[in-house]
Amino acid sequence: MSMRPTRRGYVVGGAVAAALLAGTAFGARALDAVVLPGVVALVAAAIQVRRTPEFDIDRLVPAADVAGTAATLGLTLDGDRTAPVTIRDRLPTGVDPVDRQRNGIEPDEAVVDAAVGGTPVPYTAVPQRRGEHTIGPATVVTTDALGLLKRSRTVDNRDTLVAFPRIGTLPNDIGAELRAATRPQASTQRDEFDDLREYVRGDSLRDIHWKSSARHDELMVQEFADRADPDRVAVAVGTDTGASQGGDRGETPTGDTAERTADAPADRMADAAATACVSLVRGGASVTLTTPSGSVDAAPGRIRPALRHLAVASGGRVPVEDADVVVVAEDDAVSIRVDGREYRIEGQIDDVVSITDVDDVADRAGRSGTGGEGRTAPATGGSGGRSVVPDGAGDNGGGTAPMGADEVGPGGVE
């Protein structure tokens, strides 16, 4: 802890010192009327600030949402008696406080006034990139009633704010291909052959293998192994090996570097993969997502595990080249291959929505309040975004289109 004068304290201290010097030089006893009250005020301020109660900080972090969406955090100070304080909560590079109008606010901190033992005090910050962002430590500043002295104490309490990749809309042609991938294929093809066994009363006659029956001089029946889940779609993602990997989670960009790499290939990969997975899940499909960092499953009502994985996934070579859907990110574009057709998408996702606007089919856990990362902070207003849809209302005329095309599908506006 450190105690030092405020700007007002320096003024009062200077006035007291000047009065003392003048009284010593000129013997003006009338100056005691300035010296005595000033000294008393400074001594009282020192006693009050020194007696500030001990306290702990509890930080409330909201459930994860997509990058670029405002997150409301809450701060609570627990102590044995109340006292007014100012909290300066440290924010990492890439997480910006919303209120920068207040004097003295640095770009890497959020400043709120609170009271020890009071109710949670909220503040809003915006994570500009996907990933795990460490919030804290916090510096708590206490002052006396007259604002002459202040005392700072650092509380090394850190929490993690998770930002999902951006979720947007896909051009019509890609959306149509993904919808087709979620529909069961009409086919008379049987399950895969597994073994032969003797006929048992009740077996279907169509399963009798007549050639084997003739050879064994008794009826033999074919057995079939169950096929893999026909509604499960394999999605594999990666980055072009020749592209820069500034968006990998392994490095921590700072300053201008953070701005330049905010749309790096790994981030493009994650944004496109998140948008594709949400579209597939909304269509009723289960998804197995494989990235250079590992594999995860998603299903209707359970999309957050895939988004959580993509929040920290690194770029690299596509791990499964023959997946149903393959996403490859480059420096300035993303290629999506579905059923042998490849689509190239220039630019980045512009039509970004909050995870709270993803309908109940895709995010049942998020709607019910379970499955979120972290504790819930004080409520804040909705994002006002639109529902995520796999395709749009108009024709974009081909396989190349901006990922943020202004499209609203059957989901409409929430």
Q: Can you tell me the overall shape?
A: elongated
> Whole-Å distance between the termini?
50 Å
Number of helices: 8
Beta-strand percentage range: 25-35%
- Structural class, from helix and strand content? alpha+beta
What order do the strands of the largest sheet run in, or round the barrel if closed?
A: 17-16-15-18-19-20
Characterize the largest beta sheet: strand count, sense, and whether it forms a barrel.
6 strands, mixed
What is the tally of beta strands? 20
Helix content: 10-25%
Mean pLDDT value: 77
Order of helices and strands: EHHEEEEEEEEEEEHEHEEHHEEHEEEH
Model regions low in confidence, pLDDT < 50 over at least 5 residues:
185-189, 247-262, 367-414
**Rg from alpha-carbon coordinates:** 31 Å
Could you describe the 3D structure shown?
The protein has 414 residues and is an alpha+beta fold. The protein is 23% helix and 29% strand. It has a 6-stranded mixed sheet, covered by helices on one side. It is elongated, with a radius of gyration of 31 Å.
